[in-house]
Design a protein that fits this description.
Blueprint lengths: L1 E4 L5 H13 L3 E6 L4 E6 L2 H5 L9 E5 L19 E3 L2 E3 L3 E7 L6 H13 L4 E3 L17 H14 L3 E4 L6 H5 L4 E4 L7 H8 L5 E4 L6 H13 L5 E5 L17 H8 L4 E3 L1 H5 L2 H14 L3 E5 L17 H17 L3 E2 L10
Parallel strand pairs: 7-8, 7-14, 7-15, 8-9, 9-10, 10-11, 11-12, 12-13
Antiparallel strand pairs: 1-3, 1-4, 2-3, 5-6
Helix pairs in contact: 3-4, 6-7, 10-11
Bound molecules: phosphoenolpyruvate and manganese (II) ion (MN).
């Protein structure tokens, strides 16, 4: 951390900062230039944060040099992590495809979606039972009945399940059915939810808030990690911009940026970012080409009748196209298509 003194700062102002830092257990190195004095601080940055340095007399600016997150940073853990969900690896050597319906509607629709997912190369099933909808009048999900359907379809197909949890009170319930907990874009800064999933003992898929910076996203991951859970996968799902041609703007550069800052795997949601079926395969290609560790895709056997997000759900013809991408692109990136190393027993 560096304290940049204002041009009018006095020697007494500088001495005050040095005393405060030393009293807090740190070291302060004063460097006098012609116009300004700067003070380099060495020690516990969080401790310095409690000193309110910015508001002290004579201080012009305080610049943080190290990143504000620790556990999820590559400074803390230089090599990239592999997170395993129900035997399926997500990490730097593989491309993991997660696919399924936006929302669970019926056992038949969920099973049909899971079979489409498998045909596209997926090794995990997605599906919402608790849906965080913009409108209170829109379908809110089947709740526990939806979780039960997901567990049945897992037993039939062997695909581990990721599903969203929207409030701390239902974390235990969702954990009793799911292999991975999803925190959605609208919940990324629900800090009590982040703490609850951090204590739940299950891998977490953390979607980027649609209005969140990459740093805010990584700070959200830090909340989960701080509770002892480092099994976190980050998901770029598009952000709000001025553009209206797509539902959100896929921030493709967020993938390598987040991978450089954090050791956690980063996957892409081409469905919720584009919001349009015709963009899902092109955005999936872009995701793999930029180095994403996987994708999460909406599919539906009958999108016209879907209760949620039918416009972006892949149908059979697209599944063949996505399967062709998955048969070739992972190798081009020096990866393999992710498969369960220890598949779930299919009942
Ligand atoms: C979803 O994946 O079902 C979902 C609601 O996504 P997001 O939180 O990214 O909108
Ligand atoms: Mn959706």
């Amino acid at each position: 951390m560096v304290v940049v003194m204002a041009p009018e700062a006095t020697q007494a102002d500088v001495d005050t900062i040095v005393d405060l830092v030393q009293t807090a257990g740190g070291e302060a190195f004063v460097s006098r230039g012609v116009a300004r004095t700067i003070i380099g601080l060495v020690g516990d940055v969080d401790q310095f944060g409690t000193l309110n340095l910015r508001s002290r007399a004579g201080v012009g600016d305080v610049v943080r040099i190290s990143v504000p997150y620790k556990l999820v940073s590559r400074e803390h853990h230089p090599s990239r992590s592999v997170i395993t969900v129900g035997g399926v690896p997500i990490g730097p050597d593989t491309v993991t495809v997660i696919a399924g319906p936006c929302t669970v509607e019926t056992p038949e629709q969920t099973l049909a979606s899971a079979l489409m997912a498998k045909a596209a190369g997926a090794s995990m099933l997605r599906g919402g039972a608790f849906k965080p909808r913009t409108s209170p009048y829109a379908f809110q999900g089947l709740g526990e009945a939806g979780l039960r359907i997901l567990a049945e379809v897992r037993a039939e197909t062997g695909l581990p399940v990721v599903t969203e949890v929207i409030d701390p009170a239902s974390v235990d319930l969702v954990c009793s059915y799911a292999d991975m907990l999803q925190v959605g874009t609208r919940s990324m800064q629900n800090f009590t939810l982040l703490q609850a999933v951090g204590s739940a003992g299950k891998p977490v898929l953390l979607k980027r808030g649609m209005n969140a910076t990459i740093e805010e996203w990584l700070m959200a991951a830090e909340y989960i990690a701080q509770r002892g859970n480092l099994d976190i996968v980050l998901c770029e799902r598009g952000i709000r911009t001025f553009e209206t041609a797509t539902r959100n703007t896929l921030d493709i550069s967020a993938v390598p940026v987040a991978q450089r800052l954090s050791h956690l795997p980063v996957i892409v949601d081409p469905s919720h970012s584009g919001g349009r079926r015709d963009l899902v395969v092109p955005l999936s290609r872009a995701a793999i080409a930029v180095g994403a560790d996987g994708i999460i895709v909406d599919v539906h056997p009958e999108p016209a009748a879907a209760l949620c997000d039918g416009d972006q759900a892949l149908v059979d013809a697209d599944i063949r196209e996505l399967a062709a991408v998955m048969a070739t692109m992972p190798q081009l990136m020096g990866r393999t298509l992710s498969r369960a190393t220890d598949p779930l027993t299919v009942g």
